[in-house]
# Entry
Amino acid sequence: MQNLQHITSVILLLALSACATLPTGPSVNVMPSKGKSFATFQAEDATCRTWAKQQLGKPTQETADNNVVTGAVAGTAIGAGLGAAVGSASGNAGAGAAIGAASGLLLGTVAGSGSAQVYGREAQHRYDNAYVECMYTYGNLVPEYRRPVATAPRQPIAVTPPPELLPAPGQYPPPPEVYLDTAPEFVFSPALNMYVAAGVPYDLMYDGNAYFYFNGGRWYRGPYYNGPWELATRRGLPPVILRHRVNEIRHYRDLEYRRYNLDRGHYDGRILRPEFHRRERR
# Structure
């Protein structure tokens, strides 16, 4: 019995040591751009760390540890049952259950630890991506990533900076005006839960309250499909625009517009054609 207790104690120590310890910061190196002060770089780094952490949702360490504990509990229960069955055949079900529980704890912990390690790597990858995208918006020097397979070069994607360091609305010049002879046609995209202008050379969206116009890597907000426009802050953007990159928004727009064009007479989606709003050319 003393030997069994000793074995169980050792296995418990192994279970505790199997919990994955996840990094609390980025695993990539980002350098400040030329001429930027170190104090400014530190402020941007702190903001982007917070922003990246928010994208993960539930704390990664807690999730990883839960994976280990779940594996250990499940392994203990299964091992105890099997051990009791084997022990009863030899006339000592109690000892068999104890040995089986100890073995199940070890095996379950190993399995749970492996799952935690996989989750930790994926969480770190998502954290690094969000951090790099955020630091990139401030003009810092970020590392280049190579894809595992040969694909076309990835185009730079505009990411709206966190709200703390957004520029003042008047800092950027207004975008080019939208000039149309008739009001554009909007199709409702279920994937985006917003209306998207189709068949026009502009990236326009409508959420039922305001219009949003993407130009020059930034989103603008206005009362009509052709403005007047003002630079949109993060708090002024719909959640779908914060979740999706502009190329993804275009993808969902084109999917729905093609479905509409296939058979307009029997199209079961929603179409919006706002009232024509005339604006004089500057």
Observations:
- Strands lie at 185-189, 194-198, 203-206, 211-215, 218-222, 230-231, 271-272.
- Residues 18 and 275 are 63 Å apart (CA to CA).
